Q: What sequence folds into this?
């Protein structure tokens, strides 16, 4: 997926969450660390699907890199506030593991019907902006905490020149004749006076990409979690660590009344 696709996504902020929920709701800090095992797709005993629908959901959001939302909701936290730093250091030391994505953010309590999937794009990027890892993660919180993942790990190869295909096209009265694919253009694909047989549809005109997907693996999982627990989601090629902890919104101390040195703490 193109990197600029992220720009089109909705940023989660106070605008998408009820203001009362921001103030009175329970808040949590979420941290996620995703890594891959340096094992080739072909080295596993898995039968990887030839085609996976990599479409994103209609309501998709991205974490904000700037603290512009109320109370810092859905804003990426600096590394100083991460709790997985030791795990990350240990993973980086291992030759057979490659960390791909590490992020932490804070959010209010949101049930599944209101939670939006968060866009994930990480790892190596091809020259035509295709990511090694992409997909979505959704954290919803009600009685329990749930994580829903739909992640795609891809391996790419340079597109090779393939023999041109011939397309049989029929006119109303004439015999079949060959139409070379190279002669088909966007203009020729438009409806014309010459009818084309319905059982021989014209080829779709698609932009050729310099890199094609060679292998594709999917991590689609749902896990119910308790607060403060470290959870590990497993996959033949991927690993995901996640933990949610309670977060207390700092309360601003009210200014001291004139002529009094005592401060009042709100109940």
A:
């Amino acid at each position: 997926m193109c990197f600029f696709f992220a720009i089109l996504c909705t940023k989660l902020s106070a605008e998408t969450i009820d203001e009362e929920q921001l103030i009175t709701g329970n808040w949590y800090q979420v941290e996620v660390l995703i890594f891959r095992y340096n094992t080739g797709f072909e080295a596993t005993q898995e039968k990887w699907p030839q085609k996976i629908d990599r479409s994103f959901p209609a309501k998709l959001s991205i974490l904000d890199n700037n603290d512009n939302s109320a109370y810092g909701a859905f804003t990426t936290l600096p590394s100083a506030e991460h709790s997985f730093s030791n795990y990350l250091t240990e993973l980086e030391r291992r030759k057979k593991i490659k960390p791909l994505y590490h992020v932490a953010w804070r959010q209010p309590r949101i049930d599944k019907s209101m939670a939006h999937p968060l866009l994930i794009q990480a790892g190596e990027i091809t020259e035509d902006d295709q990511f090694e890892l992409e997909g979505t993660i959704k954290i919803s919180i009600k009685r329990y905490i749930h994580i829903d993942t739909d992640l795609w790990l891809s391996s790419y190869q340079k597109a090779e020149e393939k023999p041109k295909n011939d397309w049989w096209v029929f006119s109303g009265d004439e015999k079949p004749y060959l139409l070379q694919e190279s002669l088909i253009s966007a203009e020729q694909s438009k409806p014309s006076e010459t009818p084309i047989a319905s059982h021989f549809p014209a080829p779709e005109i698609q932009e050729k990409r310099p890199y094609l997907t060679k292998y594709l693996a999917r991590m689609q999982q749902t896990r119910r979690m308790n607060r403060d627990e470290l959870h590990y989601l497993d996959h033949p090629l991927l690993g995901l660590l996640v933990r949610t902890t309670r977060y207390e919104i700092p309360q601003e101390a009210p200014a001291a009344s004139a002529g009094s040195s005592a401060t009042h703490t709100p109940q």
